[in-house]
Amino acid sequence: MSRYVYDFQDGSRDLSALLGGKGANLAEMTRLGLPVPPGFTVTTDACRAFLATGEEPEGMSAEVSRHLSALEAATGRLLGQPDDPLLVSVRSGARFSMPGMMETVLDIGLNDASVLGLAKVSGSERFAWDSYRRLVQMYGSTVMGVDPARFDVVMNRLKEARAARDDLRLDAGDLAGLVEAYKRLILDETGRYFPQSPAQQLQRAVLAVFRSWNAERARLYRRRERIPDDLGTAVTVQRMVFGNLGPDSGSGVAFTRDPATGRPGLYGDYLSNAQGEDVVSGVRDAVPLAELERLDPRAYRRLRDHARTLERHYRDLCDIEFTIERGTLWMLQTRVGKRTAGAAFAIAAELVEEGLITADEGLARVGGDGLARLMFPRFDTTAAGTPLTRGVPASPGAAVGAAVFDSAEAVRRAASGERVVLVREETTPDDLPGMVAAQAVLTGRGGKTSHAAVVARGMGKVCVCGARDITVDAGARRFTTRAGTVVDEGTVVSVDGSSGDVYAGAVPLAASATMRYLETGEQRGSEVASVARALEHADAVRRLEVRANADTPEDAARARRFGARGIGLCRTEHMFLGERRRLVEDMILAPSGAARERALAALLPLQRRDFAGILEAMDTLPVTIRLLDPPLHEFLPDRTDLAVRVAAAQAAGDPAAPRDTALLAAVNRMHEANPMLGLRGVRLGLVVPGLVAMQVRAVAEAVVERVRAGGSPHAEIMVPLVGAVEELRLAREEVRRVLAEVSEETGVPVECPVGTMIELPRAALTAGRIAAEAEFFSFGTNDLTQTTWGFSRDDVEAAFFPAYLDKGVFAASPFETLDREGVGRLVRIAVEEGRAARPGLQTGVCGEHGGDPASIRFFHAVGVDYVSCSPFRVPVARLEAGRAALDGVDTGDTR
Ligand code: ADP
Ligand code: MG
Ligand code: MG
C-alpha cells in the first residue's frame, strides 16, 4: 500500500516531488534542528489520485488521522478542544513554487466553543476572535467558494463604522460581530453553515487545497512558467503559531542576502501583531527588519543565526517566512530565493569565493538571459516615472526618446541628433530604417516573436511589443492609452524592455557597467567582477566555439571584443542595399550579357572593400561568407508603388519614366507567389550568369589584398539553400574556377574552404552525399525550421503563434528555441551522416538559435563545433556553452 502522509521528522528536501517544496523544506528545517512548529505533509500522490477519481485514495484519511493523533499527543491538546484548542494550518505546496496561486487556510479547529477556550488560555479575547474571523473568511472562500471580495466589503463597512484606519483598531466585540456577519454571508451565498466540527474543517480544507491545483489562475501560471499540469500539490498540516497575540508578536519575511544586489546581510519586512498572510497582502505597512532588531533584539539575532544556518546548508540565497509568538521565533517556510540577474552573478561569485560551492556550480547558477539583461542600460529605479502602459518585454534594456509614428520621421529626427522611440501598431521590414534610428520600439500588437521583437533583439535594441491597451493612430501621429492619456508625436517617453513598462517623460538612465567591461575589458564594481568570473570559467570549460553573425567591419570588431572566434555568417545581401540598389537594378534590367557584366563589375569593388574590412577585423579567424541568398526581386521597388507611379504618370499624360516601366515589367516577371520557396539561394547562383563569379571574385581579391597588407585572412565560402549534392557540386566548381583565376592573376594562392548551409530537410536527409562536396556544414536553423514545419515565419508569427502558445501546441516558439524533436532530429542526422561520410567535417549553427540558451545546450549535446549568433549575444552564447558543458551539475533547468 502506498504511503500518503509524512511527518516533518521523516521528510527531507530531496522529496520535493512528493512533499512539494514547502513540505520538503519544512522537513529539512526540522532535521536541521530549527524551530519549526510540528506537522505533517500529505503527498502529491494523494492529490493526483484525488484529482483523477474525485475521491480520497484508500487509506489516506486513516493515515491523516494517525498523524493528527500523534500531533495532538505531542502538543497535549486535541484539535479544536473547547478549553484549549490545538489549531492547525492547511497549506498548499507544489514541487515548483507557485506563489499565491493556490490556497492556504489558517486557524483550523476554531468554532463557537473553542474560540472561548482560546480567549481564556491566551488571555486575549481580541486575539481569539481575530483568529476565528480569519478562519471563517479563509475557509468560506477557499473551501465553500464565496467570493473573497464579499468578505472585504463586510470588513470595510465595519472599519468605516468604527472610523478605524486598519484592523488593529477593531476590538474583540467588533471581531466577534464580524464572525457572525461572515457566517451569515456564507449561509446566504451557499445555503450552508460554516462547519463547527474541527475534523470536518480539516478534511474539507485538505481536499479544497487539492482542488486549488486546478484553479484557473494556477493553470494560467503553470502554462506561463512551463510547469507540467500533472504534478499536483502536496498539503501540509501544521500546528499554528500566532503572530497576532499582541505587540510582542508578529510575522515577517526575510532573505539571507539582498535579492536585488546579492549583498550579504539579512533583508526583509516585519509586521508586528499580525499573522503571516498580512505581510504579503499589505493590509498594513510592514517595516524593514532593522526595526525588528530594535523591537526584539533577541528574536532578531536568532533569526539572523538561522538565516546563516540555512544559507550554509542550502549553499544559496534563501527566503524565509517566520512568526514571533510572544518573543519566541518560529520558522514557517524557506526555499532558495528568487533574485535579480545582477544578484545571481554576485551571489554565485561570492559563494565560490567562500568555498561553499565549486566554480562549476557557480556557473550553473547564472544564465545567459540574466547576462543579456545586465548588458543594457537600466532605469534608475529610485526615480519612478508615470506609467503609461505595459506590454511584452521583448528586448531588454531601457531607453528614452520622443515618440514618433513612422520610420521616415524616426530617421529624420535621429539624423538631427534627437533620440526617438518608434511607436507602431506593428512593424514590417519597411520600418527597418526607423528601427535602426530609434532608441526603442513600442508596438501595440504582437508577441515575443513578432517582427519588431525579433529584429530589435537582433540589433540589441530596446523593444516592448503587444501593449494592447494603447491605440496607435499613425495617421494622426499619436497613441492613446486606455486611461485616455494622449501621447502626441514628439512627447518624450521611457521604455523598459526588461519589464515591459512604458513611462511618460524621461526616467534617468544608468549605463551598463557589464557592457563597458565587455567592450573595454575594464573591471569596475563587484557586479562586473562576478560576470567576468563566470565568463572566464565558461570559456575554460566549454567545448562549443562561438562565432558571430556580422555583415560589417564594425559588427565584426565588436563581436571580436565580445569574444567571438570568427564569423559564422556574413550575409552578402546587406551589401546590396542602400545606394547600391541602383546597381543591382541595372544588373537585373540588363538587356544583354555585356550590360550585366558591366553592372556586376560596378558592384565588384564595393563588395571587395566590404570583405577586406571584415577580414581585417577578424584577422587570423575564420569568416564564413554566404553567397547571395534572397530572391532578386527583393532588391527592386515595391510592385504596388511602381504600378501606382507608372499609372499616375500615364494619367497625367506624361509617358511614365522608362526606367519605372521597365522595372515594373521586371517586377511582374519575377513575381513569386511564395518567394520563400522560390528562386533564391543556390538556385539563383545556378541560373543568373555571373552572379556567383562576381561575389567569389570580390572575396578572393579581398583575401589577396589582406595577404599583401600582411594580414592572415581566412575566408570560407558558403552556398545557401542546397537541397541536392549536384547543386553544390555545380556551385563549387564555379567557386573553385574563380579562386584559381584570381590566384593565377595575382600570384597569391587563394584557398577558401567551400561548404554549404543545411537548411532544407532534403539536405539534412542526404547529408552523407552532400558531405562529399562540402568542406563544412552550417545549419541555417531559421530556414530549416520554416521548411520543416512548412510555415513562413513572417506569415505565421502574428497570425497564430499566440494562439498556439496559449493552446500549448508549442511550449516556446520554434523560432526562439529549437524544436528538438523535429528540426533537432534533422540536425542530429546531418551531423552524424555528414561526419560518417567525411570524418572531421566541421559543423556550425548560424540561425538565431545559436544565441538561445536552451538551443545551445542541444547543439552541445549533438556535437556541433560552433554556434554563431548576433554580436550582442556572443557573451550569452559563451556563458551558455560553458553551462552546457557542465557534466552532472544541477543547472536548475528541470523543465
Ligand atoms: P503561500 O504559499 O501563499 O505563502 P503559506 O502556506 O505559506 O501560503 O501560508 C500563508 C501565510 O500563513 C504565510 O505567511 C505563512 O507563514 C502563514 N502560516 C502558514 N502556516 C502557519 C502556521 N502554522 N502558523 C502561523 N502562520 C502560518
Ligand atoms: Mg508562504
Ligand atoms: Mg536561409
Task: Explain what you see.
The protein has an eight-stranded mixed sheet with strand order 12-22-21-14-15-16-17-13. A hairpin with a 4-residue loop joins strand 21 and strand 22. With 895 residues, it is an alpha/beta fold. The protein has 36 helices and 31 strands. Helix 23 (593-617) runs parallel beside helix 27, helix 27 (691-708) crosses helix 28 (725-746) and helix 35 crosses helix 36 (874-884). Helices cover 47% and strands 17% of the residues. The two termini are 30 Å apart. The relative contact order is 0.07. The model has no long low-confidence stretch (mean pLDDT 92). It folds into four domains: 45-238, ATP-grasp fold, A domain (Dna Ligase, domain 1, 2-Layer Sandwich); 250-339, D-amino Acid Aminotransferase, Chain A, domain 1, CATH 3.30.470; 376-510, Glucose Oxidase, domain 1 (3-Layer(bba) Sandwich); 542-630 and 692-884, TIM Barrel (Alpha-Beta Barrel), CATH 3.20.20.60. Adenosine-5'-diphosphate is lined by residues 37, 89, 91, 100, 104, 106, 238-241, 275-277, 321, 323, 332-333. Residues 321, 333 line the site of one magnesium ion (MG).
